[in-house]
Here is the input.
Amino acid sequence: SLLEKAVRERLFVFEFQPYFRLKDMGVAGLEALLRIRERDGTLHYPSEFIDYLENSRFLRDFENSSLEELRRLLEKFRVPISLNVSARSFRNDEFMDKLFGLAEDFPGKLVVEITERLLVEDVERTKRILSRIREFAKVAVDDFGTGYSSLAYLKELPVDIVKIDMGFIRGMMESERDRALVEVIVEFAGRIGMESLAEGVETEEQLRILKEMGCTYAQGFYLARPMPEEKVEELLRDEG
Ligand code: G
Ligand code: G
Ligand code: MN
Ligand code: NA
Here is the structure.
């Protein structure tokens, strides 16, 4: 299978999608996005393999090597790096201890992305873990608005960045309701001391509206696609 081959031949790599501060359009950070890259350059995306990986006997090794890789990248790049942490990994104390260690070694440079579903399950344990992460790293809620969570949950949780799902960003152009929803999330986040990040920004018009709303960060194909490590070096070099 693809997964077995990837493990055997060490074909896992990260691409990086930058996100930008809307205030000055500087690079604010990089989201690490997992791929399997075959020898001939063919890329496979998480939708093709992540569920298999999560439920495979390879998960433990994979987690360990991705943390080692992340350590190397945190040393190399001057901007923060976000890691998507699955519910499965989040529930693994051994993995989380290693992640805390990494955060401690690079204060202010790691962002831990979790999905909002995690926030509504096992709330007490989640709160405890997030509080510990936040001593040295930021916590971002991915795909906000798509699951069961609500502003009421958000209010309770130790979270730094709310990532507004791209469905609403896309919808903003046609739907007054989507636009209102995005505006409310941005406003609410700001009022309670959280930052907001708009995902999936694909047009100049969307960017303009988000700036007007006072959204903190934007990410999306209009600004930058996920890119390999070498391209990130160029991007950060050009920015100076
Ligand atoms: O660009 P893209 O197709 O990579 O991302 C699809 C999904 O895969 C995203 O929702 C993201 O959360 C998930 N994903 C990307 N990289 C990782 C990773 O390193 N670990 C986990 N668990 N999920 C990831
Ligand atoms: O769920 P998560 O946000 O971690 O996944 C990120 C996914 O979103 C990746 O598959 C990435 O390639 C994709 N993505 C990032 N920006 C855009 C965009 O502007 N448009 C679309 N359609 N997908 C995007
Ligand atoms: Mn993400
Ligand atoms: Na997302």
